[in-house]
Amino acid sequence: MLKYSFRRILGMIPMLLLISIVVFTLAKLMPGDSLTGEIDPRNTNPKYIAEMREKLGYNDPMPKQYFRWIGHFVVGDFGKSTRFKISVAEVISERLPNTILLGLSSIFLTYILSFLMGSYAGRKPYTIGDNLIGAFNYLGYSLPAFIAGVFAIFIFSFKLNWFPSNGSVDIGIEDGTVEWWLSRLHHVFLPALVLGLLSIASYTQFLRNDIIENSRKDFVRTARAKGTPENKIYNVHILRNSMIPLITFLGFDIVAIISGGIITETIFTYPGLGQLFLQSVGTRDYPVLMTLTMLFSFLTLIGNLIADILYGVVDPRIRLD
């Protein structure tokens, strides 16, 4: 396992280099540059703009610009945000805790709700409860995140007034207090539920079908023939085997949170990295945009690595080495 993990980590290096080339090239092909987002050409002397572009190296050959950028990036110098006028690292560090909280909350809700609904539907198939859970699953499959987010805000924020529709914490609360943490959890619950909606529906249906399939296998019939109590058969033989594949999805959840968080954070005006990414596109804040793209790509590779490793951990029959 260690040998396999080490090989995968080494294999990520050329992949990240290739991604960096693509990110840099796409940033250069976009209209304008970082200077365009920092100054207004209508109110600035064109000669000054040309001098600044020369000073910042924007007129250098593309390979030279790339190696200068990637060299600074490797040592942790991500540049300066043209919108916020501070370093990119500071901008990201302010938003990162919110995205981490949203991601962890989404994963927690996904696995808790999937386990409860999937185990119930699998143990009592074709009942009214199973049919209701199935209807919820089909709804989760069919609703895109932006539609689900709008409906969630309309119903739970505007109509029922159960959850706030935007922000990450109430104004005027002292940081670090119990009230502050409760407010953060109150704000993050609804976007976390919307973010994990598709995964909840998928995992619930997967667990339900796997429990039904395992309950019909020979080792379960043998356990019943030996007089094993039904609860023990369900908890040890059926549920345990059905949960193993579900655990391996954890790595893929990281990838899903990265892609879905951009839309969800924007809908709920949740101040995380996803919302920052779209704002950077609109304001041509290329240093922030390029750094976030590299960060999302790195987390995607890490998520796939975790998923592969978990396959071997939870199922010893798989030999990754």
From TrEMBL:
Family as reported in the entry's similarity comment: Belongs to the binding-protein-dependent transport system permease family.
Annotated compartments: Cell membrane
Pfam families assigned: BPD_transp_1, BPD_transp_1_N
Domain ABC transmembrane type-1, first and last residues per copy: 96-307
Membrane topology (UniProt): Multi-pass membrane protein
TM helices/strands, residue ranges: 9-27, 100-117, 138-158, 188-207, 246-268, 288-314
Protein name per its UniProtKB record: Peptide/nickel transport system permease protein
Domain of life: Bacteria
InterPro entries: BPD_transp_1_N, MetI-like, MetI-like_sf
Alphabetical UniProt keywords: Cell membrane, Membrane, Transmembrane, Transmembrane helix, Transport
